[in-house]
Design goal:
It contains three helices and four strands, in the order βαββααβ. It is of the alpha+beta class and 100 residues long. It has one domain: Alpha-Beta Plaits (2-Layer Sandwich). The protein starts with a strand and ends with a strand.
Amino acid sequence: MFVRFFSSAIDPNDLAEVRRIFGEDIAPVFESMPGCRSMELLLGVDRNAGGLIDAAALSRWKSHGELTAAIESREVAESMVRILPFLQLEPVIRMFEIVE
């Protein structure tokens, strides 16, 4: 299994809108993709040193190939368009293999 970790930060005033967009647009699209096991939004409980809220999206995938195909798909790209303006820091994207 593979994990994709996408992290950035958002303005605390945008939390409600980010939650809504994630729930309506991003999670359903990712979870409909072949091989996606789950998609979660992680929000920091405190403001970081810059006064922003750390935020991350964590997705789990059956295979690296399915993860790559989903990320390269038009559906995923279109789902991300509405959330990108809320990101206050350049996103950091990391992928990991889960060792069992």
